[in-house]
Amino acid sequence: MEVDVMNQNKLLKALKNDIQGVSKENQRIDQNIKVVKCALTSKAREAMEYETKINKVGTENKEISAGVQAAQAGVQAAQDNLKTVKNDREAANKDLKIEKDERDC
């Protein structure tokens, strides 16, 4: 009977040590979880900042694209005007030639 009590005491001490070890391990795990949460929060914040920068660049690209389109439209209008001037000049030259031919007759 006395041996059983001694064995039980040893078992209880061993269990107590095991529980203390598990408790310490749980504390280390909790600390690691906190570190990981902080790292994830930091990365999430960084991702949000990048998303904001990407959106800003996208907006700037749209504005640049609109400016390029406006410039292309301006170039096309200038080319159309140049063609009109050229046609008008050719018509005027034809008129002058006709007038000159009439005078020569």
Sum up the structure in keywords:
single chain, mainly alpha, 105 residues
Task: Describe the fold and architecture.
The protein has one helix spanning 2-104. With 105 residues, the protein is mostly helical. The longest helix has 103 residues, at 2-104. The model has no long low-confidence stretch (mean pLDDT 93).
Topology summary:
Elements: H1 2-104
Order of helices and strands, N to C?
Answer: H
Summed over residues and divided by their number, the pLDDT gives a mean of 93
Strand content: under 5%
| Computed structural class | mainly alpha
Shape: rod-shaped
Task: Please give a quick description of this structure.
With 105 residues, the protein is mainly α. 98% of the residues lie in helices and 0% in strands.
